[in-house]
Amino acid sequence: MDLAELQTLMDDLYGEADTARGVPATVAWLCEELGELAQAVRKGTREQQVHEFGDVLAWLASLANQMGITLDEAMQRYVENPP
Fold it and tell me: What residue ranges do the domains of the chain occupy?
């Protein structure tokens, strides 16, 4: 799955609920998922780590959708002029 497909999937599955939740709540959920990923990286099994990576990607895609930003657009600077 590529980044555009991820964003389409998240919009199809959760777009209406994500829009109703709004950006501030989505940012809060993303932060929570990042914390869970950090914990899984430190002490979790590979299965838990894979699960949490998926959650972080899903919430990031949701946030990008709400902001009208594509993840491809966000990553383009790494193609053109990496920091």
Answer: 3-80
User: What does each of the 83 residues of the chain score in pLDDT, given as a tens digit?
Assistant: 999 999 999 999 999 999 999 999 999 999 999 999 999 999 999 999 999 999 999 999 999 999 999 999 999 999 999 99
Q: In CATH, what is the architecture of 3-80?
A: Orthogonal Bundle (1.10)
SS (H, E, C) 7-60: HHHHHHHHHHHHHHHCHHHHHHHHHHHHHHHHHHHHHCCHHHHHHHHHHHHHHH
Provide the token pair at 7. Answer: 């964003």
Dist CA 75 CA 37 (whole Å): 21
Nearest to 56 by CA among 71, 72, 76: 71
